[in-house]
Amino acid sequence: MNAPVPELNWLEDPQVFAVNRLDAHSDHVWYADGSDLRQSLDGPWRFAYSPCPAQRPAAFWQEGADLTGFAEIAVPGHIELQGYGQIQYINTMYPWDGCHNLRPPRIAWDDTPVGSYVKTFRLDEALQGKRVCVSFQGVERAFYCWCNGQFVGYSEDSFTPADFDLTAYLRPGENRLCVEVYKNCSGSWLEDQDFFRFFGIFRPVYLYAKPSVHIEDLWLRAGLETDNTTGTLAPRLRLSAAEGASVEGCGLHCTVTAPGGRVIWDAPMPLDKGGDGCWYGAPVRLPDIRKWDHEDPALYEVTLTLRDAGGAVQETVLYKTGFRRFGMDQGVMKLNGERIVFNGVNRHEWNPETGRAIGPEDMYRAMETFRRNNINAVRTCHYPDQTLWYHLCDENGIYMIDEANLESHGSWQKMGRVDPAWNVPGSLPEWRDCVVDRARSMFERDKNHTAILIWSCGNESYAGEDILAMSDFFHRNDPGRLVHYEGVFHCRAFDQISDMESRMYAKPDEIRAYLDAKPAKPFILCEYMHDMGNSLGGMESYIRLAREYPQYQGGFVWDYMDQALWQPGVQGRRLGYGGDFGERPTDYAFSANGIVFADGTEKPAMQDLRYWYDTPARRAAWDAENARQAAACTLPPLRAGGPLTVVEGDVNLGVQGEGFALQFSYTEGGLASLRKGDTEWIWRAPRPALWRAPTENDRGCGFPVASAAWMAADAYPKLEGWTTAREPDGSVRITYTFRFPTVPGASADLCYTVTGSALRVDARYHGTENAPELPLFGVRFATVQPAARVSWTGLSGETYPDRYKGAKFGTWSETPHIPAYLVPQDCGVHMGTHTLTVHQQGPACRTTAALTLRMADGRPFAFSALPYTPHQLESAAHADELPAPAHTILTVMGPVRGVGGIDSWGTDVEPACRVSGRQDHAVSFLIEL
Fold first, then answer.
1. Does the bond joining 141 to the residue before it have cis omega, within 30 degrees of 0?
2. Low-confidence ranges of the chain (pLDDT < 70)
């Protein structure tokens, strides 16, 4: 649409989404006389914030407008992260839910903030005398643009470029560009992604110049023949000429350079004009090429040199491409003729300082994490990313689902119910052009990227004729890629939208049921393994499907990085999540689902993802080495102990030996003192461990509610009595029995057996018919002083029964701590432990005292060594709300509940990783004396 005068009512008209905007084009860069003909406008801009349109400086775009009162703002950047407006995190509902009674396409005119931007600039010499355009790479959510007092254009779609021709408006010397950005528009109903809601110019802005004859758009159309060694190149170009120039008679030269620098093609490329107005280069066949895939992402540099009719070089384009073939073969997706399995993740663009206004360093770091952890695929949830990310995926062989900027789940998902009564875009004709435009803008920009195997029509927007039109656009324009859309699962009338069956968080048995029916379409999980907090348990059940069913072709973990922002906390800077910024409505900590924390460091679960995303052969080798190391681990014999001295008091039973003294209290109900040398180790008597601070997945499936009786039982066990015995071998045994008033019929015994060299602890739980499931069973006690360090022989990292295969057997060490989960919860469990040593250290960081626990009877145990009790962890919403550590809480466990990961809102951990309250359980260990 073209218009000379802006209208404010465009904000509520879904049929107006681009005014005077240039056609979308490829992301190629051109050079002339050694310059890329670009001029950045990033940096400080003059800025004014208005809470609603009625209060905006409506005439700020006029020449000579008074900018008194305008401050400065950084571009790119979110307005809310620079001191204006309200930071808000929302998942499914719309951000105005409960605040304004709205239906599409309306906006709240009294609650739609406006950002008014002004930038003055002088054209760089290289751009002068040429056609000059401005490119906004990303603006949330709608904006009007003026140059030197004249209206330039209007655009929506926050995540694809908006380009405008400035040639007619520029003048020598200083120029003024004015941009008016609105947080809400009709397009807001289509951008209901699960993320923080920002607005402003959050991606780069630059000017670019076009030579007299210019390649406006380029599609290399690289392919691979079935021999997998012959590459093909058939470029399609859209050309333009400046006033007084012509594209007729222009010439194109093509050079193809292989990895390593060898030129394999260097010749003029004849051009033929097609009926569609595009120019088509003569196809080229290139023998003996290396096919592109994850294992060998070979890229070939294509150099196109454009000359005018007189033979003068106008511009040169360099673009790297790979040769590959992708498609469907008898219901199986294949790359270069081989079945493909996606070991993928979903990735939001995120930085805890700058939100979605990320920089190159964020992308480079993410790619290093991908490569280090065997991730071979990414879904750009739920919008197109910055261009650099696509180049990195090309270079690193990361398979891409490129997803259009569309998500409207708030219009049809109502607290878990499917209710599409007013779903947009649906089959509403007034919304069709704008969603197809979003598909077109993504396609045109990204079509040259080898890494993109699949186009996605968006996310969680139900289904209808409008999304079908998006799918038809992709199929019609790009037969060399497939089309994805998960939403047809909820509306089978439009099943033809998606080339594959795609679901979110389907359970393994549901997937088996689909695949056992011999379907026409292959199956992928566009989202699975919801990694919220301490999660990612049970991944093996999905990986196993890939071995059993050729049509199961992998999935994409949700998601890559926690969405959290640095904010002032009670003890300094902390990472805040939804609700921490005073916003309502909000969805609180649901913003934190990443396999890396918001600062980019890997979560403990990453070692398991790395393992399961490795090849079967390397996993088998890993398992064999772990088994060999565990089998070779032999514990040294206990020292020869001397005789024991027993002191039977009225309140305490004392047992003394060579270098140690123990006291068992009748009133305290257990081991009240363990002194080795001069060091006291026990703060209070150990107790049966029956509770853990619920994980996000525990809460989501209702486990803490169903098993709440164990929380009270853990905090308030009832001592029923004790027995003592002197054994014939000279050892001393004392057994304490506990019952739990909140779980009638259940009981536990803690039995201590003292010899001259060790204290053996045997904990036994006696189940009862009506007892709820336990989170764990074991023994918990606190040290007098916080431990400086713990070291153990067993599995590396944080492990649970459903998340331990990626751990390595060996000897490890750490300072007792809690991982940086945004919400404190159970953590720090170490499965398969043979020995555990707790260290106290002096000022020189040298161990001054140590207490070693070892497995009994050849049975490894699990343990955690944390600065806090489960009840302290559970009471805190953020880590900085926890007190300074006073002790180290040691928990030695037998059975442990898994963490789960299928989802975080209803699905329990797998049955094999639950702990029955009806059955008996036990754990035993030795403390070296």
1. yes
2. none
